[in-house]
């Protein structure tokens, strides 16, 4: 799933290429992806793109007061073309959910792999008409150490992993970067949020800022098609089950859930104690 660094980079990529260009056509080919009806998507035709920005994991193209907002979900992606196809895509056929064409013949397709179709497109007049954006917590880059500490104290006994990836608490961090942040901070993903000392709060805050900023910096200037591979190559533990921890050399372990998993290093994060695999534990009962 694209998270804050990738969406930030996509926003920068589109800002360089799309701002100042008029939208010739925007075609929805996956009807389930369009979550709004007023204004209709046809209202984008002829509008000039003024800005591209990010709200958490949401991408926002603002065109003459109308916002085309995109959430790529788990399996969505944006595929840019300098020479965009002008052909109509048959609804329900193939991975393309939306095709956008600009006045210089460039544009992009939104695609989604797999059977779980969760990619979302909104056309709205004000950004808070998008429910997910209206509920977003603060952006990590706008959080002070004091504000971060307050969030964790208010979370109580909720596990750190859950707090970091809860979009209504902190916007933009998902499964992958929460694993990375906790590895850098040398903390268990299951540690209660309110059970941190002042020093640990500062360590976790610093790990969050440095991990995200480093990922944004690595992604800066990359073409959209290169962002996925850059994300994978920069991971220390996420998605690296069975490989060696780059810090201590221990084997990276995994905890599986119903629809996701987390990766961690027991030596670095849990005092050498393996965490129980929740899915396997249920099978053994």
From TrEMBL:
The keyword DNA damage applies. Its cofactor is Zn(2+). It comes from the Bacteria. GO terms for biological process: base-excision repair. Its EC number is 3.2.2.23, 4.2.99.18. CDD domains: BaFpgNei_N_1. PANTHER family: FORMAMIDOPYRIMIDINE-DNA GLYCOSYLASE. Belongs to the FPG family. This is Formamidopyrimidine-DNA glycosylase.
């Amino acid at each position: 799933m694209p998270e804050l660094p990738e969406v930030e980079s996509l926003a920068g990529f589109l800002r360089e290429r799309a701002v100042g260009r008029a939208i010739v056509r925007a075609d929805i080919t996956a009807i389930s992806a369009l979550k709004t009806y007023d204004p209709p998507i046809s209202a984008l035709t002829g509008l000039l793109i003024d800005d591209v920005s990010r709200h958490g994991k949401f991408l926002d193209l603002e065109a003459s007061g109308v916002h085309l907002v995109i959430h790529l979900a788990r399996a969505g992606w944006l595929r840019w073309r300098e020479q965009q196809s002008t052909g109509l895509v048959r609804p329900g056929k193939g991975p393309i959910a939306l095709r956008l064409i600009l006045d210089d013949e460039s544009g992009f397709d939104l695609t989604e792999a797999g059977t779980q179709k969760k990619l979302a497109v909104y056309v709205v007049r004000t950004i808070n008409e998008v429910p997910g954006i209206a509920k977003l917590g603060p952006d990590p880059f706008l959080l002070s150490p004091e504000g971060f500490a307050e969030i964790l104290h208010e979370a109580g006994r909720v596990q750190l992993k859950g707090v970091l990836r809860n979009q209504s608490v902190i916007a933009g961090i998902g499964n992958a970067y929460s694993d990375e942040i906790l590895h850098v901070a040398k903390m268990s993903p299951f540690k209660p949020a309110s059970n941190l000392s002042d020093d640990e709060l500062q360590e976790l805050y610093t790990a969050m800022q440095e991990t995200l900023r480093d990922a944004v910096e690595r992604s800066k200037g990359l073409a959209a098609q290169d962002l996925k591979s850059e994300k994978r190559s920069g991971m220390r533990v996420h998605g690296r089950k069975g490989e060696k921890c780059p810090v201590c050399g221990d084997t990276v372990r995994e905890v599986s859930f119903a629809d996701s998993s987390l990766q961690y290093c027991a030596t670095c994060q849990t005092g050498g104690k393996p965490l129980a695999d929740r899915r396997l534990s249920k099978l053994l009962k």
